[in-house]
Specification:
Length: about 160
């Protein structure tokens, strides 16, 4: 990264109060981001931001996702979501080049929404309820972090393997 870009980004970071890791990011914010793809959910207080800050939040997303995949790996479901996102990007590129049709993009986006909806048609709250039942305590998505929540899932999956 160039000196000017680092200087520019460092000034943005000091004016931006965001969650820096999955160890502090509340589960609710992670879920909202996954539903909406709105990176402003990584802010400690959701608000409108300018384009430069949005770009910085995109890099924050990459950092959070890298932490998540390093800690928990990439499961089959996440791979399907990523593959569908790549397919959509290719379809959009084809459409911009006059090759594809908009209907293909719309169908792929609906398929992506269904994938994001969750495993076996369950949403976040249904999965949360199953984890609560298995673990024997309530999970507050505004307090429980992404790291804690997926650690519970990892622990439950480990019990199933035994």
């Amino acid at each position: 990264m160039t000196f000017l870009r680092r200087l520019f980004n460092s000034g943005l970071e000091s004016n931006l109060d965001y969650y820096n890791s999955i160890e502090e990011l509340p589960l609710f914010n992670w879920w909202k981001f996954n539903e909406t793809k709105d990176v402003k959910h990584f802010l400690k207080v959701y608000s409108d931001v300018n384009t430069a800050k949005l770009l910085l939040l995109e890099t924050i997303y990459s950092k959070l996702m890298n932490q998540y995949t390093k800690e928990f790996g990439i499961n089959e479901h996440l791979l399907l979501v990523l593959e569908k996102q790549i397919d959509i990007a290719k379809l959009k590129a084809d459409f911009m080049n006059g090759i594809g049709i908009i209907t293909s993009i719309e169908v792929a986006e609906i398929e992506l929404q269904e994938l994001v909806r969750g495993v076996k048609g369950m949403g976040f709250y249904e999965i949360k309820a199953l984890i609560e039942k298995q673990m024997g305590f309530r999970i507050d998505p505004n307090v429980t972090t992404v790291m804690e929540y997926y650690s519970y899932i990892k622990l439950i999956d480990g019990k199933k393997d035994k």
